[in-house]
Amino acid sequence: MNLEMIPVEIVGLKTNLQAVIRIIRQMGCMHIEELTDLPEVSARPLSLDRDTLRQQEELSLLVARVGGLLDALGGIHQKPVISLTGNYLAEARAGVEELMPKVKALTSQRERLESELTSLPRYEATLRKLLPIIPSSVREPGNRSVGILVNREHMDILDAIGKRVVDLTQGRAEVVASDVDVSTRAMLIVFPEQFTNQIEALLGREDISRLRLPAELGDGSPDVVLAALYYRMASIPEQIKEINRELASLSAQWREKLAVWRAVLQDEIEASRILPRFGETDLTFVLAGWVPAKEIERVEMALRENVGNEVFIQKLKMTPEMKKRAPVILQNPRLAKPFESLVKLLALPRYGHIDPTRLMAFFLPIFFGMILGDVGYGILALALSLGFLRRFKEGVLRDILIVLAMGAGWSILFGFLYGEAFGTLGEYIGLHALWFDRTSPDHVLGLLIMTVAVGAVHVTLGLILGVWEAIKDKSRNHLLERGGMLVGLIGLFFMVGVLTDFLPQGFMSFAIAIVIVGIVLLSMSLGCLGIVMGPIEFITLVGNVLSYLRIAAIGLASVYLAKVANEVAGIAGNVIVGAILAILIHALNLVLGMFSPMIHSLRLHYVEFFRKFYEGGGRPYEPFRSRM
Amino acid sequence: MEIDLTTIGTGLTAIGAGLAIGLAAVGTGLAQGRIGAAGAGVIAEKPEALGTMILLIAIPETMVILGFAVAAMLLLLGGE
């Protein structure tokens, strides 16, 4: 069922605009429309002044900064409980200004340390290669060393450099080299300090790539540098931990405040975004929207009490055009509520049309139960869905789990009627079919007829609702189409009655006449193509009824898979292997048994049932309300 | 050698039933494969179209159900 909505227009002096916005937000029940979409209301769109625009931008920037700080400090996992002071905007600005530099400094220092920690092992590998070949002269005071890395393809350069260095220092330099990896060779030059400039100039001229180490490691000899590197590698994680501790302490101090500021500021931004939907004249503002009929008095009273007579609310006349645009609120009893998600999965029903949630809540679990129909699988499916329900507190998944639990309940009931517990295992505990034994070929025909009968009832109900909708909408075409189908289907029931000797033979001509009348009515609704399309549509309708055979077909597949599992256990030759195989096949059957009946029951509703009457495409009701 | 026409008839009925459901299943599979591939693309772009896609994917299944109906009729009523 969808709730009655009333289109309203609120007009007042511009001086009261902010007060009205505050009251409507507090009430939280008005769905505000774009004024340009309502030709019934004449006013130019409200133009925002420069100050308002600047304030919006400022708020957006502040929210982004608060969000950035929350990301850096780690989000909040529970609803913040602190209360706000009146001047929360200034507080938020000051807080962000105070916190931002501290967090920025700590996070950038952490990033630098993390990147250093990643790069140090690369230097370590090179230095360790050089270590065995380091000459003792490197430790003599007054000596300096330079490392060079060269690709093996250019080995001749190393020899040339070595020679030039020895010449340049008159033989006082020492040159050693070693392979770093398959493609690189390293060379270490040890020379007296007074030749530093000449050596640097030589290496610069030859464009040689030097082994450059992070400044933190100093510029000593490789063994000293390696020792410094090991010290850094050991100390950096400690430094990172210290930074994380500082951030955690800041987080404990600030994050709750930040979360509250973000929520409040986002709320403010949302409130200011609603303004372009308003209209204005020189002195007044106008806003229009939808209020649920049961709330209208409360809104009127709140406006009167808080703003007085300078603002008035006027109920607009509901035109057919407006009815098409009215937002929809579904209202169903608690048991049917989870099925709303399944209805919305297809489309929200249009305002003023049938909400099929309750019908779905009645039929879908029964269809599920008829398909699965097994005490054992039903109990397991019920336990699993109830178990998972604890994990999901809200959302579509929770609704699906509740639907699954209801279906599992019906499965247990149908399990007793079919005499099934894990397929044929029920026989061993004295379970016998009370209605249909699906494992017996003698009962299959009866089962098929039963499912077609269920289909006939369901489709007929859909058509009756469709005819009712057509009459309500005064739609001649829909009435002819759905009425024709209904009449033809009733004729078909008479024919089946005669063929099964349920009715006397004399009814046959009458039944054929009714079917023909139905097809003619259906053809009339389809215009020129009706003469061809009418009979085809009628055959499709018969196909819709036969489609309910899937209730039997999928159920039979499940029964036979369970039977295979039980028989495999018997012929495996080994009790343990047999039991494992049986459990695996039963587990597969259970998963299929939870998934397949749900999908097929949904399909029977969406395709066979809803298409006879359902008008989708409704607009969701989105009231203007505070998030706080 | 004497030919038992009843046995041949029963065998042919079983083959007919197998063909009825098998060919219908192949047709359904081909159709669902194409619709499913297109549907996966649609849902990636527009998750709210999930319901419509389930509906579209489910439509060709009627074929295999009708195949099942024919097969069941052949097997259960074929001998009468």
Question: How would you sum up this structure, described in words?
Answer:
The complex is a heterodimer of chains A (628) and B (80). With 628 residues, chain A is of the alpha+beta class. Helix content of chain A is 61%, strand content 9%. In chain A, helix 2 crosses helix 6, helix 9 packs across helix 10 and helix 10 packs antiparallel against helix 18. Chain A is built from 18 helices and eleven strands. Chain A has a domain of 86 residues: Alpha-Beta Plaits. In chain A, a hairpin with a 4-residue loop joins strand 5 and strand 6. In chain A, the strands form three sheets. In chain A, strands 1, 2, 3, 7, 8 and 9 form a six-stranded antiparallel β-sheet that branches. In chain A, strands 4-6-5 form a three-stranded antiparallel β-sheet, sandwiched between helices. Chain B has 80 residues and is mostly helical. Chain B is 84% helix and 0% strand. The longest helix of chain B has 41 residues. The radius of gyration of chain B is 19 Å and the shape is rod-shaped. The two termini of chain B are 27 Å apart. The mean pLDDT of chain B is 86. At the A-B interface, helix 9, helix 13, helix 16, helix 17 and helix 18 of A face helix 2 and helix 3 of B.
Characterize this entry briefly.
By secondary structure, chain A is of the alpha+beta class. Chain B is rod-shaped and about 65 Å long.
Task: Give a quick set of tags describing it.
heterodimer, A: 628 residues, alpha+beta, Alpha-Beta Plaits, six-stranded antiparallel sheet, three-stranded antiparallel sheet, 61% helix, B: 80 residues, mainly alpha, 3 helices, 0% strand
Flag low-confidence runs of chain B: none
Structural class, from secondary structure content of chain A? alpha+beta
The string of secondary-structure elements of chain A, in order, is: EHEEHHEHEEHHEEHEHEHHHHHHHHHHE
Report Rg of chain A.
Answer: 40 Å
